[in-house]
Amino acid sequence: MMRLDVVTIFPEYLDPLRHALLGKAIEQGILSVGVHDLRDWAHDVHKSVDDTPYGGGPGMVMKPEVWGPALDDVAAGVAGVELESSLPHLEKPVDTVESSYEAGERDERPLLIVPTPAGKPFTQADAREWSHEEHIVFACGRYEGIDQRVIVDAERRYRVREVSIGDYVLIGGEVAVLVIAEAVVRLIPGVLGNRRSHEEDSFSDGLLEGPSYTKPRTWRGLDVPEVLFSGNHARVDRWRRDQALLRTQAVRPELLADVDLSPADRKVLGLE
Ligand code: SAM
């Protein structure tokens, strides 16, 4: 069972986590999600969570006296509002699928993810690693972000990761949390029906995935590539690999530097 807690000033932004496969994971007892309104920890009459930046400049910065106690309480297990699956409730829960992760010597502190454009880029490798976590807490910034001392102080109770979902600036961390949570949760055993579907995804072998096709064989004058009807698995696999190589070379050539290329791969790429 994985537990996600999200601290935000817009709890309703996290509603998509109740739907589709994540909703099903909640229904099956694989996942539980608590959403916390940061303003519950604000003490003045206006419930303010931000203040002007030291050193001047535009915008506002989120206050440490609000964030600090909020993260203390969530680390200590304060539940917040529990998200219920949007799916029709099942008569009885499906057997919970336990993570296949073998716990070695573990740091018991929960993982705190702080989305920020100034963080390390979030990757599929992070998603894979974090899919083994038991408890992940997300801190959603707004305005110009959170007072940096909150992040430093949080290290006492959490393993902290500041991560960016891309080289652009969003208004708040909530959408980044949706992105990260979806990428992580789909990798928990039992969430996707077919395990192979994520083993063959883009990035899993360092390459982007090539094109996919379904019925009908001809649509608006466009044919599905002939090789896919050959029934020859080796030829189909080779064709898929070639398509992945060529797409990666065209769209993300820098990824090829980390891929083991066979002589056949190099030939397809025109490297020999
Ligand atoms: N002043 C900040 C900077 O330039 O680094 C930008 C703050 S942004 C307007 C407000 C919040 O949106 C951030 O605290 C973060 O939670 C979220 N955010 C914006 N862009 C993001 C990105 N690329 N990845 C992750 N979170 C992002």
TrEMBL record:
Name of one Pfam family that matches: tRNA_m1G_MT
Subcellular location: Cytoplasm
Biological-process GO terms, alphabetical: tRNA N1-guanine methylation
Catalytic reactions on record: guanosine(37) in tRNA + S-adenosyl-L-methionine = N(1)-methylguanosine(37) in tRNA + S-adenosyl-L-homocysteine + H(+)
Binding residues annotated for S-adenosyl-L-methionine, in chain numbering: G141, I165, G166, D167, Y168, V169, L170
EC number: 2.1.1.228
GO CC terms: cytosol
InterPro entries reported in the protein's UniProt record: Alpha/beta_knot_MTases (IPR029028), tRNA_m1G_MeTrfase_C_sf (IPR023148), tRNA_m1G_MeTrfase_TrmD (IPR002649), tRNA_m1G_MTases_N (IPR029026), tRNA_MeTrfase_TRMD/TRM10 (IPR016009)
Keywords: Cytoplasm, Methyltransferase, S-adenosyl-L-methionine, Transferase, tRNA processing
Domain tRNA methyltransferase TRMD/TRM10-type: 2-257
Keyword Aminoacyl-tRNA synthetase: no
Molecular function as annotated in GO: tRNA (guanine(37)-N1)-methyltransferase activity
CDD domains membership: TrmD-like
Assembly and oligomerization: Homodimer.
Record function comment: Specifically methylates guanosine-37 in various tRNAs.
Protein family per UniProt: Belongs to the RNA methyltransferase TrmD family.
HAMAP family the UniProt entry points to: TrmD
Name this polypeptide is given: tRNA (guanine-N(1)-)-methyltransferase
